Amino acid sequence: MKLEQNDSSLIFSQTNIPDVFFTEYLSQASGDYVKVYLYLFFLSKYNKDIKINDLSKKLELPLKVIQDAIKYWEDIGLLIRKNQGFIVANLQDIELNKVYKPKVSLSSTDLKKIAESKSRATAIETINNEFFQGVMSPSWYGDIDLWFKKYGFDEEVMIALFRYCFNKSALHRSYISTVAEAWNKNNIKTFSDLDLYYQKQEKVKSIANIIKKKLRLSRNLSEYEEAYISKWTITYNYEMNIIEIALKKTTSKFNPSFEYIDKLLTDWHEKGLNTVDKITIYMENQKNKPIQKNEKNKKSSFSQRTYDNLNNFYSNI
After folding, report:
1. Which residue has the higher pLDDT, 194 or 316?
2. How many C-beta atoms surround the C-beta of residue 261 within 10 A?
């Protein structure tokens, strides 16, 4: 494997690593991957040939780690594959392109508004100082500008976005974009929106823990079960006292499931039953309602055992 560097003008014996490596790449790579990159960067100054096996021995790393490290740096563009060997990419050129390309998608009017916004500039400065120790890479400025434009977040929400990802030890673009997209789907624009969103999420979490305890579930809830609970508490605005009625009425049944509990709660919601008293009266009326002959025949069918027929359920409560 031959290594070259596309900027080989260094004439001193030092190996100079650009600061952008530390601000952009170091935190996201494993220690072994960094070790491999630094050594390849060093060898590239002299256009050295080195075999993968020799590299493994020299760095005292398994061959698989060396191969995975080379693929990692190639995937993010710091190594460029040639017919024979690799070129170690110029980090300054990469970051310059990142800074330039996002800007071209913004109109001059947009850039002027961003420059004139003192509150936005203050927010970006806060992000720089609080999460990047004052050395935020220039490429982040373009990303933040675009996120402001795309999602319409106010300055406090943008700072909260970085703080949330920082506390999750996931301060990288892909994760921040994912969280920002989720907040946008929940119509978060202002800090008040975000605060209300957090309150709703806490409510969902609290009710989920109660449901797990009521159903004696020792496992974690699945993504789909959590989605059901979110629908009951946020979309239907049901409190635990209503949800518990459905839990009580299904725990004695054969193989009760979140799907069937959802059928009950959805039925109540569609009928506008939003209090315990209304639901109790409704169930009592359904219980006393005469069952038609064809419905009696269904009671012994498989569909009844899987709770597809709510009328049969109400007749047995």
Report:
1. 194
2. 23
Q: Residue with structure tokens 């064809």? A: 294
Residues pairing with 86 in the sheet: 3, 81
How far is residue 189's CA from residue 172's CA, in Å, rounded to a whole number? Answer: 21
Edge-to-edge strand ranges of the sheet holding 3-5: 3-5, 86-88, 79-81
Rounded to 5, what percent of the chain is helix, strand, coil? Answer: 65, 5, 30
Assign domain 103-189 to its CATH architecture.
Orthogonal Bundle (1.10)
The reply to whether the predicted model has a pTM over 0.85 is no
Provide the token pair at 21. 């490596």
Neighbours of 167 (CB within 10 A): 9
Cβ atoms 245, 279 nearer than 8 A: yes
Burial class (CB in 10 A: 0-12, 13-18, 19+), 116: exposed
Other CB atoms within a 10 A radius of the CB of residue 121 amount to 13
Q: What is the DSSP letter of 68?
A: H
Same fold, 3-89 and 103-189: yes
pLDDT band at residue 300 under the 50/70/90 scheme? very low
Instruction: Tell me which residue has tokens 């969902």.
Output: 204
Largest CA distance in the chain: 96
Output the pLDDT for position 14. Answer: 77
Whole-number Å distance between alpha carbons of 32 and 86: 19
Closest of 264, 217, 219 to residue 243, by C-alpha:
264
State the average pLDDT over residues 126-153. Answer: 90
Which residue in 101, 103, 92 sits closest to 25, CA to CA? 92
Domain boundaries, given as residue ranges, for the chain: 3-89, 103-189, 213-315
Q: Is 314 within 8 Å of 280 (Cβ atoms)? A: no
**Residue 204 corresponds to which tokens in the numbers above?**
């969902």
Which CATH architecture group holds 3-89? Answer: Orthogonal Bundle (1.10)
